[in-house]
Amino acid sequence: MKKHGVLKLIMVGLRANTCIESTVRFVAELGFEVTVVKDAIGSFGHKEMDASLQFNMPAYANAIVTTEQLLARLAV
Question: How confident is the model at residue 1 (pLDDT cuts 50, 70, 90)?
Fold first, then answer.
C-alpha cells in the first residue's frame, strides 16, 4: 500500500482483542499511521474490548477516536 501513497489506515471491525489488535500492531510495525475507531469495533465482551483499548492498542495506534471525532477530522 505504501507504494501507492497510502500511509494512514483507519481500523474498524470485530474482535477487538484479537483481529483488530493484531492488525493494528502489524501495520504499525510496518510504519503505517493507524487510527482505531473505538465505537466501530466489537468484541464478545466489554472486558476484552476495554483491555484492548486501554492497554494494548495505545502502544501501537496513533489515535483512538470515536466515529464522531473521526468524521470531524475528515471534514477538515
Answer: low
Nearest to 6 by CA among 34, 26, 29, 25: 34
Closest CA to 16 of 54, 70, 67: 54
pTM of the model: 0.90
> C-alpha distances in angstroms, 45 versus 19, 29, 39, 49?
14, 27, 14, 7
Give the pLDDT of residue 76.
77
In contact, 17 and 49? CB cutoff 8 Å: yes
Cell numbers for 35: 487510527
